[in-house]
Amino acid sequence: MGPLDLTDPAVVADPYPAFAAARRVAPVQWHEGLGLWLAFTHAESNAVLRDRRLGRIWRDREPAERFDAFNLVHRNALLEMEPPDHTRLRRLVSAAFARGHVERLRPWVEGYARELADGLVERSGGTEQVDVLSGMAEQLPVGVIAELLGVPEADRPLLRPWSNAIVKMYEYGRTAEVEDAAERAAAEFVAHLRALAAERRRAPGEDLLSHLVQVRDAEGDRLTEDELVTTCVLLLNAGHEATVNVSGNGLLALLEHPDQLARLRADPGLLPTAVEELMRFDSPLQLFERTATADVEVGGVTVREGQKVAALLGSANRDPAVFADPDTLDVGRAENPHISFGAGVHFCIGAPLARVELQASFTALLRCASSIELARPARRRPEFVIRGLAELPVVLTR
Asked: How far, in Å, CA of 228 to CA of 211, rounded?
């Protein structure tokens, strides 16, 4: 088998046949073009995510003066650090989250999802095509994170473009234009959050940002301003990109498997397991890197100190050694140890909120629309690492 080309349009469109072929060759393979090891199986990907000798070691993008803001929002991020720094920061952020924010937001999320779904159905009227991505999937998670943090209504349209620009830096084969746009977005986002944090210090509310500003642990430790800003950026970027893409990828999967869509309509109690299955079936994040801090054996190969190894989450989630009929969508799949939220110390801190959003989104759409039909082929984003759609045109009937 030749090297996996992550820029090949055929692989971007459907990477799963290439993953299956690679798994049959070896669980972990060296990719010369990327200069890292790739873990294709569930066991090895899980090991990569959990082994403490394989860490998230942030190195500033060079030249530093060109990527000042981008480096700032990663240097202080939970996702880019290891214990003991990670332990301290996660403890503080978890303490702020523990103030009941997910349950506080549940009725708001469900209401907003119904409002968006109802608007889409109204606009479509059984004849006109509407885009579920721009009309609902993108709006809901951005609205939820904005509500969670207490971002003013007028500023909320800024959040998605900032996030979109920043996450394009995680792809391979970036252009200088993409890099410049990411730095501009990071700088604007940081400035906006600094101003918002200062306002919350003067007049705190019941939002998460206020609680992050106030939180202290038993030793009296608190978040620095850079940590505070970075945590808010991470919550938006990681917290909504995955949800947007599970919504889009998941609805497309259901439309392409009408028997499963009908099954879900007939038994709404399957929604929680269906959401987990949609995350497994077409993973919103396909690749997650680690760096070896010592020589580590993974899948029969030695990852040398300083080398990178990536867990291919989408491949792991289709591993037949773990999942029966892995290429089959089964909304009632009970045994589903997918790793779409990660694993180990970096397991997604926002997973409970993401599950609330996704269940609310699919529930609202299925209740508001008696019929959902694909108007024309969905258009996929041209990136591999963050897997999602650019457009999902449908016709909805009340």
From this structure: 10
For residue 68, give the amino acid letter. D
Q: Identity (one letter) of the amino acid at 344?
A: G
- Cα 395 from Cα 374, distance rounded (Å): 6
Which domain covers residue 132, as residue numbers? 62-282+339-397
Q: Is residue 4 part of a domain?
A: no
Q: Which residues contact 388 (CB under 8 A, 6 or more apart)?
A: 241, 244, 245, 248, 249, 284, 380, 381
Q: Residue 304 domain-assigned?
A: no
Angle at 239 between CA 380 and CA 190, to 5 degrees: 105
**How many domains are there within the chain?**
1
**Distances from the Cα of 396 to the Cαs of 264, 368, 373, 374, 388, in angstroms?**
17, 9, 7, 9, 21
**Phi, psi (rounded to 5 degrees) for 278:** -65, -35
pLDDT digits (tens, 9 = 90+) for 14-53: 999 999 999 999 999 999 888 999 999 999 999 999 999 9
- DSSP annotation of 339 reads -
Could you tell me if residue 227 is inside a domain? yes
Q: In this structure, is residue 299 part of a structural domain?
A: no
**What is each CA distance from 80 to 58, 74, 75, 86, in whole angstroms?**
6, 6, 7, 8
Place of tokens 């209504």: 153
Q: Which of 193, 191, 175, 138 is nearest to 160 (CA)?
A: 138
- The label of the residue with tokens 């999320």 reads 109
| Residues across the chain | 398
Phi, psi of 305 (to 5 degrees): -50, 130
Strands 379-380 and 389-391: antiparallel
Mention every residue, 6+ apart, whose C-beta is less than 8 A from residue 25: 1
CATH number of the domain bearing residue 122:
1.10.630.10
Contacts (Cβ under 8 Å, ≥6 apart) of 217? 88, 91, 92, 95
Alpha helices in 150-268 (DSSP H): 159-167, 176-202, 208-214, 225-256, 258-266
Reported pTM: 0.88
Who wins on pLDDT, 236 or 275? 275
d(CA 345, CA 80): 11
Report the chain's terminal Cα–Cα distance, integer Å. 49
Integer Cα distance of 378 and 396 in angstroms = 15
